[in-house]
């Protein structure tokens, strides 16, 4: 140990060049090998707290260990003990399958330690964030006045949107927001954070395909106004997580315009469907929203974290977030030079736009259009399969890559409890046997299996074989 007095310029926190290169090479090899093995491994792995306590509990070591050993341990004992969200047969929740240029972009940003908060600190990266946001604006059909920022995900994007909406409404005391009974829990959390109590978050009923009911929305807003409340935002789904439902965005836009209420669309998983022709049609009216949350880490095939918020008039976003303290006075380069920290919560920010930029540059937009379109089509094919099956029934038709169904033999006459018990067992067996990873949900209280098919490497064979296994397991479990 050196005493501070005899300090030289040498840091103890560096590695020799050869070792840096060797370690990086090994890290890359481990990840590439993982990707090669992935389709042959189960889509889910996990362990109990007790198991992991035994293998991972330890005090922080006072002295270091060989870096290669540390790396190998992370790659064998820690990282694989997790869901393989990027597995071609991962149909649960909302899958994410990263492209390699995006993975490398994250590494490059870490290596450059990019501080993407102000133009002064990151001019090139800021310009690229503007460029990528302009691509998104173009895909959506947003005007030049639109702008936004990359965020950690859809939750943060919707939170920032609510701040902008609340400020645009004059930050009223008795604020309310409106969303369908299918809207994501992230929106309720975002409302809580901006100071809107859960009891003032109005859950608007939906129609039989789980789309927000316009009549119910109009009634709720009118009643609230009469009772002295101040509606600050209406939220539409562009792909509700539960069912893939798309709310009537055009009608909502008309309503919000005449009522002068901010329309926020949660397209966290679904908005990039605009890249495919079918998706674009389904999402008609998206461009009329005041703000849109969309997650490149879902249907634009980027590694976590990559979310995005676009606001139709970016000045309203900046009006809500800009604070200019003295110690940041050097960062003001004028209007042309966006400081992304003035558009959201974070000052210190990762340069998330680079992953999208590198992926799109490498593969081209056309390849992404096809990949998104494939997810939509595979879910539709799954629906066709289920409709033709004697063993399965549709619980809600395919929409934006999501399809809900259950095991229920034709003419079985089973009641809801029996079906629920049976389907729970089927789902458990699908996961236990390593066939696939899938999750369940409830649709108006009825238990349903659910596929979300967004992985760019998923094939019809993956989907069909899983459906066949569900039919088979259902019959076996029903007989036993
Ligand atoms: C995933 C998702 C969210 C939450 O986004 P995060 O990226 O997880 O923060 C919100 N809404 C919908 C519709 C989603 O699919």
Keywords:
480 residues, alpha/beta, Aspartate Aminotransferase, domain 2, Aspartate Aminotransferase, domain 1, 2 domains, seven-stranded mixed beta sheet, four-stranded antiparallel beta sheet, 16 helices, 11 strands, binds pyridoxal-5'-phosphate
Put simply, the count of helices is 16
- What do the pLDDT scores average to? 96
Tell me the helix content.
40-55%
Query: Major sheet, described briefly?
Result: 7 strands, mixed
Low-confidence stretches: none
CATH superfamily of the largest domain: Type I PLP-dependent aspartate aminotransferase-like (Major domain)
Briefly say what this structure is.
By secondary structure, the protein is of the alpha/beta class. 44% of the residues lie in helices and 13% in strands. The chain folds into two domains: 104-365, Aspartate Aminotransferase, domain 2 (3-Layer(aba) Sandwich); 367-479, Aspartate Aminotransferase, domain 1.
Describe the structure.
The chain has about 475 residues and is an alpha/beta fold. It has two domains: about 105-365, Aspartate Aminotransferase, domain 2; about 365-480, Aspartate Aminotransferase, domain 1, CATH 3.90.1150. Helix content is about 45%, strand content about 15%. It has helices at about 15-35, 50-55, 65-80, 100-110, 125-140, 155-170, 185-195, 215-225, 250-260, 275-280, 295-300, 315-320, 355-365, 365-390, 415-430, 460-480; strands at about 145-150, 175-180, 200-205, 230-235, 260-265, 290-295, 305-310, 390-400, 400-405, 440-445, 445-450. Strands 1-7-6-5-4-2-3 form a seven-stranded mixed sheet, with helices on both faces. The protein has a four-stranded antiparallel sheet with strand order 8-9-11-10. Strand 4 (about 230-235), helix 9 and strand 5 form a beta-alpha-beta unit. The longest helix is centred in the last third of the chain and has 24 residues, at about 365-390. Pyridoxal-5'-phosphate (PLP) binds near residues 241 and 307.
């Amino acid at each position: 140990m050196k005493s501070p007095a005899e300090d030289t310029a040498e840091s103890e926190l560096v590695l020799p060049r050869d070792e840096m290169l060797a370690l990086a090479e090994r890290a890359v090899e481990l990840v590439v090998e993982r990707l090669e093995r992935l389709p042959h491994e189960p889509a889910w792995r996990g362990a109990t707290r007790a198991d992991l306590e035994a293998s991972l509990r330890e005090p922080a070591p006072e002295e270091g260990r060989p870096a290669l050993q540390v790396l190998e341990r992370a790659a064998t004992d820690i990282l694989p003990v997790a869901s393989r969200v990027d597995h071609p047969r991962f149909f649960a929740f909302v899958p994410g399958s990263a492209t390699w240029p995006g993975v490398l972009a994250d590494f490059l940003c870490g290596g450059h330690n990019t501080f993407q908060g102000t133009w002064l600190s990151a001019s090139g990266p800021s310009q690229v964030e503007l460029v990528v946001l302009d691509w998104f604006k173009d895909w959506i059909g947003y005007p030049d006045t639109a702008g936004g920022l990359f965020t950690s995900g859809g939750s943060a994007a919707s939170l920032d949107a609510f701040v902008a909406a609340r400020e645009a409404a004059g930050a009223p005391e008795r604020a309310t927001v409106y969303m369908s009974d299918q809207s994501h829990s992230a929106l309720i959390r975002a409302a809580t954070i901006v100071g809107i109590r859960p009891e003032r978050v109005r859950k608007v009923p939906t129609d039989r395909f789980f789309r927000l009911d316009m009549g119910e929305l109009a009634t709720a807003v009118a009643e609230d106004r009469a009772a002295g409340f101040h509606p600050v935002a209406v939220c539409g789904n562009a792909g509700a997580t539960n069912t893939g439902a798309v709310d009537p965005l055009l009608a909502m836009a008309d309503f919000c315009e005449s009522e002068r209420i901010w329309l926020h669309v949660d397209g966290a998983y679904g908005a990039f469907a605009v890249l495919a022709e079918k998706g674009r049609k389904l999402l008609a009216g998206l461009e009329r929203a005041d703000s849109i949350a969309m997650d490149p880490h879902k249907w634009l095939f980027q590694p976590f974290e990559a979310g995005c918020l676009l606001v139709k008039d970016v000045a309203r976003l900046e009006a809500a977030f800009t604070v200019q303290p003295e110690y940041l006075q050097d960062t003001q380069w004028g209007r042309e030079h966006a400081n992304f920290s003035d558009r959201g919560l974070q000052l210190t920010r990762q340069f998330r736009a680079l992953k999208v930029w590198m992926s799109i540059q490498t593969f081209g937009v056309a390849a992404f259009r096809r990949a998104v379109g494939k997810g939509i089509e595979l879910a539709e094919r799954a629906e066709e399969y289920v409709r033709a099956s004697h063993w399965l029934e549709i619980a809600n038709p395919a929409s934006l890559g999501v399809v809900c169904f259950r095991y229920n033999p034709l003419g079985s006459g089973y009641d809801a409890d029996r079906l629920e018990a049976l389907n729970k067992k089927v789902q458990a067996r699908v996961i236990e046997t390593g066939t696939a990873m899938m999750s369940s949900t409830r649709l108006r209280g009825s238990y349903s299996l659910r596929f979300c098919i967004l992985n760019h490497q998923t094939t019809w064979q993956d989907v069909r074989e899983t459906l066949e296994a569900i039919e088979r397991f259902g019959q076996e479990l029903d007989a036993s």
